[in-house]
Design brief:
Helices cover about 80% and strands about 0% of the residues. It is mainly alpha-helical. It has one domain.
């Protein structure tokens, strides 16, 4: 009996919930095989079309709405496969979550965000890119939205296959712009708005990277490089978790609760400040108890950041579901409205059945195809641990708040991936600084060759160039593809 109790297999028994997550990961690996994943995706798209047929009835434009619902489902699958990786990648890369656990949490919170707080009103032309009156007739508007939806979905699908996390918002914007130009000419485009979106290509990743690097520098200087790391952590980790809690409270108040209530920036800031102070006070005894008996080394610190990192991933997923579900179903809702009433100049409410297609599509896309991009963001750009991943998650929330304050359009994808780059490049700079400092202290110490130093770069340059290139060409590529699709549809129906 005593031998059995000392058996490592018994000592290392995991909780049943974690075992279920492990089973989910195995199931994901199975269904992610090309033929099975593709088959399930096709079934979901067909079911979306059947749902549209049941809810829309036997109106004259039922066939058009069924096609649009299928395209919306296809877009939602691609959002789940690509965009959700930005929220879950850092937590998985830091080993705070297993792949199965990340998929389970993301699926629940993405769906909850979409259904509970998903935007109930969208502009008939996404983001104000095209003047609605320039479309002329309802059929032209419907085909333009169809083209935008299909082109955005195809582009995100291609980016996922290549392994590049891109902005689904920018893909939809590019699709709408391309279809609008094809339908009504360049004069129909709202170029000042497009200029702001182009600026966000630079602003989002730079701001996200800078904020993540600042917090990593704070953690290193105040905790990691201290002689008594545990004592420093007891002081600073509650502060950092309070900042994170406050930032997410403000973030969710601004971005995740628009359907429930409209909250302005000063109010959101005050909500965040109050909740942040409350969390800081609560976390002081929690961290003190959690840190008892920990060894005075960096590895011990990871334990203190694990739970905040998991919570941040869940909250990011909720806010993402609330906001980005409109990328899949906004154009679909506009098509439904135009098909029902013939009016495409006013704002349109998103029907519940349309929102459900978007929410379930994002979850299915994540489950079937998400692990590839989760691994890319979490492990292949730069090596992450819980402290670095925490900086990425915190940066995502703070950057959105700062951008809202400045009135700048930003991309959640660009922010999160930019934060990962920021963490990696800061680590490179910090490592080089420490090497120079050690060289001054020990002049006779052997030095690395230029080739060896290049090999030791902490950010993979190939991934960096691939992702930046994909970001730059997303809007023009989606626009060109959308324009071509619109011309093909127009010539086919002429």
């Amino acid at each position: 009996m005593s031998d059995q109790q000392g058996d490592p297999r018994h000592l290392e028994t995991l909780d049943r919930d974690l075992a279920r997550f492990s089973n989910l990961e195995t199931a994901t690996a199975l269904v992610a095989k090309p033929t099975i994943g593709l088959g399930i995706s096709i079934v979901f798209v067909v079911l979306a079309g059947i749902t549209a047929m049941l809810f829309f009835g036997e109106a004259n434009n039922t066939f058009i709405v069924v096609i649009a619902a299928c395209l919306g489902a296809y877009m939602a699958l691609n959002i789940g496969a690509n965009d959700v990786a930005n929220n879950m990648g850092p937590a998985v890369g830091a080993n705070a979550l297993t792949m199965g656990g990340a998929i389970a949490i993301a699926a629940i919170f993405e769906s909850a965000g979409a259904l509970i707080a998903g935007g109930d009103v969208v502009s008939t032309i996404a983001k104000g890119i095209i003047a609605p009156e320039s479309m002329g007739t309802t059929p032209i508007f419907i085909w333009a939205m169809m083209s935008a939806l299909l082109s955005a979905a195809l582009w995100v699908n291609l980016a996922t296959w290549v392994g590049a996390p891109v902005s689904t918002t920018h893909s939809v914007v590019g699709g709408v712009m391309g279809a609008g130009i094809a339908a009504a000419g360049f004069a129909a485009v709202n170029w000042p708005t497009m200029g702001k979106i182009a600026a966000s290509w630079v602003i989002s990743p730079v701001l996200g990277g800078a904020i993540a690097a600042i917090f990593l520098a704070l953690i290193k200087s105040r905790i990691i490089y201290r002689d008594d790391k545990i004592a420093a952590a007891r002081t600073w980790v509650p502060v950092l978790v309070g900042i994170m809690g406050g930032a997410f409270a403000s973030y969710l108040a601004l971005k995740g609760l628009k359907k429930i209530m409209k909250i302005d920036l000063p109010t959101a800031f005050m909500i965040g400040l109050a909740i942040g102070v409350l969390i800081w006070i609560i976390m002081i005894p929690v961290i003190r108890k959690q840190s008892e008996g920990l060894e005075n080394r960096n590895k011990s610190l990871k334990v203190l950041f694990g739970i905040p990192l998991v919570v941040s991933a869940a909250l990011l997923s909720f806010a993402h579901g609330a906001n980005d579900v409109a990328n899949a179903v906004g154009p679909l809702a506009a098509i439904v409205q135009a098909s029902q009433s013939g009016d495409f100049l006013q704002a349109v409410s998103i029907p519940l059945w349309v929102m459900i297609i978007g929410a379930f599509g994002i979850s299915f896309g994540l489950f079937l195809f998400g692990p590839k991009l989760i691994r890319m963001v979490g492990a292949q750009i730069t090596k992450l641990n819980p402290m670095r991943a925490y900086c990425v998650a915190l940066s995502a929330a703070i950057t959105v708040i700062v951008a809202s304050w400045l009135g700048l359009p930003v991309s959640s994808t660009h922010i999160a991936v930019g934060a990962v780059f920021g963490v990696g490049f800061f680590r490179e700079w910090d490592a080089e600084r420490r090497i120079k400092k050690a060289r001054l202290a020990m002049p006779n110490r052997p030095q690395y060759s230029k080739e060896e130093r290049r090999r030791r770069k902490l950010v993979r340059r190939s991934h960096f160039l691939t992702i930046i290139s994909a970001w730059i060409i997303t809007v023009p590529a989606a626009a060109l593809l959308s324009g071509v699709i619109f011309f093909v549809i127009s010539s086919f129906l002429a």
